[in-house]
Hints:
Helix content: 10-25%
Distance between the termini: 74 Å
Order of helices and strands: HEEEEEEEE
Oligomer: single chain
Radius of gyration: 22 Å
Strand order of the largest sheet: 2-1-4-7
Shape: globular
Strand content: 25-35%
Structural class: alpha+beta
Number of helices: 1
Amino acid sequence: MIRKTLIFAAASLMTVSAATAASAGSGPAPTGKDACPPKYVCVWDNNTFSGKPTLKSEGNITKTLKSGDGISIFNNGRAYPGKDHIYYKYYYPSGGDMQRGCLHYPGDSPTTHRSATVRVVFESARWGGEC
């Protein structure tokens, strides 16, 4: 009888420990730049990096994204010669030239992100060499 009680107590303790460990790791999902995984480029359909990225990839992004609230682009890449900078393109649908630029990876330069505050159409973000 004592043996059955000890086995039951041990099983109960393991269940409580597993449930506590599972709940300790849960919490609110990351948002903003924290939601952009390492080695990724991320694009938001707003100009404040708010919420989860609308587009994110370890590779190039060539999907068109229309946004009435501007866009935010973040290079969360890592040093990798020839493929650690992001070359982006977007334009204003109301007219004007194609906007192009280059973003460094974190630690390489303070220019790791870019945002546009008006309605834009995002065209692409491609990995490449030094800006």
